[in-house]
Amino acid sequence: MPPSPFTFLIPCLLPFRRTVCPQCLRFSQQQQQQQQQQQQRRRIGNTAQKILNIEKPNPESYTPKPLSRPIGVPYPPKPGEHSGIDSRTWREKRDDMFNYDKHLIRREQLTKEAAKPYFQDWSRTNYHRGKTFIAPSRIFRAEKSLYFPNMVGATLASPKTLSDTTPVLRDRISIVGVYSGHWAELQTHDFVKEQSHPELAELIAHDERQGGPLQRLELNVEDNSMKALIVRTFMRGIKKERREQDWGRYFLVSRGVTNEMREAMAIVNSKAGYVYLVDWLCRIRWAGSANAQAGEKEALVMGAKRLLEAWKREKEASTKGMVGGGRKAVATSSDRR
Fold first, then answer.
1. Ordered DSSP codes for 252-284
2. Quick check: pTM over 0.85?
3. What is the distance, to the nearest Å, from the Cα of residue 293 to the centroid of all Cα atoms in its chain?
4. C-alpha to C-alpha distance for 76 and 79, rounded to whole angstroms
5. What is the Cα–Cα distance from 73 to 87, expressed in whole angstroms?
6. How does residue 335 score in pLDDT terms, banded at 50, 70 and 90?
7. What's the half-sphere exposure (Cβ side, CA atoms, 13 Å) at 235?
């Protein structure tokens, strides 16, 4: 008589067996991980609705509101994340293929993408020029701030290799412009360009002469592979428009940016430009959208100055601690002698 296909469950059902079946243990661990990932996706996915609340039936009656809560992802970024490259093994892919819960998650994502109209972002640009929120007058508190996610893309300095944004953001104070398309790029220039905002340009130039941490980054996010290919062909022209020291701060991101990341960063309209003030720990301390309104440019400059002062205080405290520790070490060695 051939063995039953359920014979592998017999050791798990024996009442006198004290050890746990490794297959059941592995299955329970996978279930716990999936539940944690679902809770995290729901928490990040609802961030934009809690902050902005722009989903209204009539866009004409909508007016942008001040950004009252910190935005970003709740976990610190790491190099290699959100690269868009599937690093799973063949066994992991096989397990995911037969995982019904992951199929439900993927089905929910596809349903949201299919339900979104194709020209929704373009139609929203007719009202307030795509502006979804008003920048806060002050920077977010450090202990309440969330993180800027890691992105992977090609830079002007190394267009043939992919680079992470997190190493460029760490230990620096960065003004990051995120856009997709030339029109959105001009909106970010309204915040940071010398012609439209000379005070900020002067602050960045003065800090560069002193060897400070203030810098400016550009993230050109192109999900469409054809558009990304067109941008790659015009890399030489983009290089001529920028200084050589800024080539490593221009990223062309063509994959890895998920809808959850967009919602966490309050990028509701992909056709508009967004500007973020990121501190040395990759935390978003200020954000602006579309064209700058009255008071937003001044708030960006004041926020950058406050971060520069905080960065200098932290560096002075760390150097004093190192000097004090060195003196203590010398004192203990002399006492031993």
1. EE-S---HHHHHHTT---TTS-EEEEE-TTSBE
2. no
3. 24
4. 10
5. 22
6. very low
7. 16
